[in-house]
Design goal:
6-stranded mixed β-sheet, 6 strands, 38% helix, 25% strand
């Protein structure tokens, strides 16, 4: 999904703590294996480490001016995570525009409205921050697969009605 959406013109996978850390690491390993290109990984820490060889607020590669970054996350619901992640990445710049965020990929787009909007959070992220935000799968995909193609033991007709009701209130238009 990363390659299909962003090619390979980037240097770093950034995985926000905590769930994004293993996603960034394993994606960097897979990218090297699949495409023969070394991509560095970086993650933030919830609390800055003040001792040892790897002290500071970042884990792994330290992002620098000139780096092109792809953000990797597990799920997007409201888009709140990017409000914390974006400033952490950009704070590593020594000159404005020194670090380019190529895009964001999430495993699952919950397809819920962003705050103060009827649009999906990933759409609002793209508009607000100026980079593409994409998902591997959406809740629509998951529901469709488990309900339509499944044996209706996971998503029964009753559960489907509840989900439809939930998404009529909170789902993006």
């Amino acid at each position: 999904a990363v390659h299909d959406n962003f090619g390979d013109n980037f240097d770093v996978f950034f995985g926000p703590a905590y769930k994004g850390i293993p996603l960034a690491v394993v994606t960097a390993l897979a990218y090297s294996e699949l495409y023969g290109k070394e991509i560095k990984y970086c993650s933030d820490r919830k609390e800055e480490k003040d001792h040892g060889a790897d002290k500071g607020s970042l884990l792994g590669y330290k992002i620098n001016d000139g780096d092109r970054v792809v953000i990797i996350e597990d799920v997007t619901t409201s888009g709140k995570s990017i409000e914390e992640t974006y400033p952490k990445i950009k704070s590593q710049e020594t000159v404005p525009g020194g670090i380019k965020i190529v895009g964001e990929i999430v495993s699952l787009n919950r397809m819920e409205k962003a705050p103060d909007s009827d649009k999906a959070a990933l759409e609002v992220i793209s508009e607000k921050y100026g980079f593409p935000a994409r998902a591997i799968v959406s809740m629509n995909d998951v529901i469709e697969y488990l309900y339509t193609n499944g044996d209706k033991k996971i998503i029964t007709d009753e559960i489907k009605k509840e989900m439809d009701s939930y998404y009529s209130l909170y789902g993006a238009k």
